[in-house]
Specification:
With 290 residues, the chain is of the alpha/beta class. The chain folds into two domains: 165 residues, 3-Layer(aba) Sandwich (Rossmann fold), CATH 3.40.50.720; 118 residues, N-(1-d-carboxylethyl)-l-norvaline Dehydrogenase, domain 2 (Orthogonal Bundle). The strands form two sheets. An eight-stranded mixed β-sheet has the order 5-2-1-6-7-8-11-12. Helix 4 packs parallel to helix 7 and helix 5 packs across helix 8. It is globular, with a radius of gyration of 19 Å. The mean pLDDT is 95. The protein binds NADP nicotinamide-adenine-dinucleotide phosphate. NADP nicotinamide-adenine-dinucleotide phosphate binds next to helix 1.
Length: 290
């Protein structure tokens, strides 16, 4: 008899809910949910349809658990407080996926396992909590991992007609592109506490260009291979966004939650210092938004 794959999902917020939804569609998995706050259901809206799936979320754990996979869906600033989970949920057998945008995603886990057991994963899946308590996820999630055996195995956990798992040769470049895009958009929207409608003016388009160029300098110094017309491509993409589009940083600011400044503009500024590059705009943003 085929044994079921045991998968733990840590952090059942926006992304944890979306990932759990896609995993629970495969009956071969035995899923375990861990988070800070108890919820009785995964509530999400997919293709305009509200879906409620009963779940048993554990908010405490007293005995070590052996899992085949642990999928971590936390924000960077939540890792420190979540440390106790890592020692209880990771054994030498556990393969770990870290889903979050940014750089050096493995670092907080290296005290608990070896780097070759960890798969870093970027996600493109704008998901926000609606007033009715359902996570709205309007697009098909796109997950990006490095081309590897672990990446292949991770992909095989999903029914990929509903979720896109993209394997890339140059994960560092992809991570930097995503970081520059989300740090630029998120920071400017937070500074103005407004949505993408602000980018109609040339002044704000120039602000976007300047911040993005400053960040790209650091990205290239760190070895990312980014095309010369990247900023203009991102600006063209921005012009097609609905006026009401926000960002996860803006949503956190408006919900009075900590924003992911350290993982985004903070990381760019830190690496700028490492490469001896000035990052005055990112530094100013950190001062203003901290
Ligand atoms: N949301 C998006 O649209 C989006 C898009 C692309 C990428 N991302 C990235 O995905 C990552 C996850 O973001 P998210 O939006 O899913 O965050 P989120 O909604 O805040 O979810 C994080 C979850 O982790 C839980 N948590 C926090 N501290 C914990 C602890 N000490 N122990 C156990 N559980 C804990 C939170 O519990 P509570 O319920 O108590 O807060 C919450 O349920 C971030 O890096 C983000 O940048 C998000």
């Amino acid at each position: 008899m085929k044994t079921r794959t045991t998968i733990g999902i840590l952090g059942i917020g926006a992304i944890g809910t979306v990932i759990s939804y896609h995993l629970q569609r495969n009956s071969q998995h035995e899923l375990y949910y861990f988070s800070r706050t108890k919820k009785s259901h995964l509530n999400l809206i997919i293709e305009n349809t509200p879906i409620e799936i009963p779940v048993g979320i554990q908010t405490k754990i007293s005995t070590k658990k052996t899992l085949d996979w642990l999928i971590i869906c936390l924000k960077e600033h939540q890792y420190l407080e979540a440390k106790h989970w890592f020692s209880m949920l990771i054994t030498s057998k556990t393969q770990i996926v870290i889903i979050r945008n940014g750089l050096h995603l493995k670092t907080p886990l290296l005290d608990f396992t070896s780097g070759n057991k960890i798969l870093e994963c970027l996600i493109d899946c704008p998901t926000q909590l609606s007033k009715t308590g359902f996570y709205q996820c309007p697009n098909m999630p796109i997950l990006t991992v490095a081309e590897s055996a672990l990446g292949m195995y991770f992909k095989s956990l999903f029914n990929t007609t509903n979720i896109n798992i993209n394997q890339v040769k140059d994960f560092k470049t992809e991570s930097w592109k995503k970081l520059c895009e989300s740090a630029t958009l998120g920071a400017i929207l937070c500074l103005h506490n407004d949505t993408c409608r602000i980018f109609k003016t040339k002044q704000l388009q120039d602000q976007y260009r300047n911040l993005m160029n400053e960040s790209l300098q650091v990205a290239r110094a760190d070895g990312a291979i980014i095309e010369s017309n990247f900023v203009e491509k991102m600006l063209a993409k921005l012009m097609h966004y609905p006026e009401t589009k926000g960002s996860s940083m803006l949503a956190d600011l408006r919900n009075k939650k900590p924003i992911e400044l350290g993982a985004k503009n903070g990381m760019i500024s830190l690496l700028g210092k490492y490469y001896n590059l000035d990052t005055p705009i990112n530094d100013l943003i950190i001062r203003k938004l901290s």
